[in-house]
Amino acid sequence: xxxxxxxxxxxxxxxxxxxxxxxxxxxxxxxxxxxxxxxxxxxxxxxxxxxxxxxxxxxxxxxxxxxxxxxxxxxxxxxxxxxxxxxxxxxxxxxxxxxxxxxxxxxxxxxxxxxxxxxxxxxxxxxxxxxxxxxxxxxxxxxxxxxxxxxxxxxxxxxxxxxxxxxxxxxxxxxxxxxxxxxxxxxxxxxxxxxxxxxxxxxxxxxxxxxxxxxxxxxxxxxxxxxxxxxxxxxxxxxxxxxxxxxxxxxxxxxxxxxxxxxxxxxxxxxxxxxxxxxxxxxxxxxxxxxxxxxxxxxxxxxxxxxx
Length: 308
Ligand code: UDP
Ligand code: MG
Known about the structure:
308 residues; alpha/beta; eight-stranded mixed beta sheet; 10 helices; elongated
């Protein structure tokens, strides 16, 4: 029988882990398949670890816990889980039941029927989410899909069923800053998406503030495209040419003995140019910071203890 590994990042999820476990195992038991559940406790400050340990005791050896030394973020938690997963098939799921476990059997069916390597899920609605957040999310997908080589499907979740080979390819990518939504797509393979309506969290609250999401989106763009660098280049180039012309005109005026009232214009131009330079160096800084993170080669996470 083949083995399915379910990777579950948890951060302050004391209210949801049990609900999730019951729902998940309810579905897994109906499937003709061995399974393991890998909970990654991402430095939770509440009773998540105790709850997980209780599940570990109930789990008949099918539940493993990786306990981080602090909060390293969902990306690191996913990576730890994927590295640890031994399954022929692997999936990543949130604990809040926003990734409905009932979809697993269907995902397997589709995978088998169409010979896919990956079956992902995407929510086609964003009901229950603040309107402004949905709007920004849609703009992000438009932007990243227009300017990057990876095609990230709008609303695609990290909840995707992947074959062993795909996981091995993903683990070969060793970059420090991981933007999994992109990595999952970057590796390629035959992939298809099941669509569903957004489901709201069963309990607890989201760990993503608006600004955390903005940072996440910026990371995604910077990691997958050098387009912002070329914007800086082109805007800089354009300004230099315009400024050159303005200076030339001024010079000619002065030479012809004409009075010029360029002061106001000049101040505007100087400020504008100053802004453009700051922007360009800011963009450079973002890339430099990423490079710095990469060369430092710090581990993605530190494991305090594993419960096998
Ligand atoms: N999560 C995590 N580390 C973090 C933030 C979130 O492991 O630093 C987990 C969280 O416990 C949940 C999943 O990632 O299982 C998705 O988080 P959340 O539901 O808050 O995100 P949303 O669904 O609102 O995008
Ligand atoms: Mg959620």
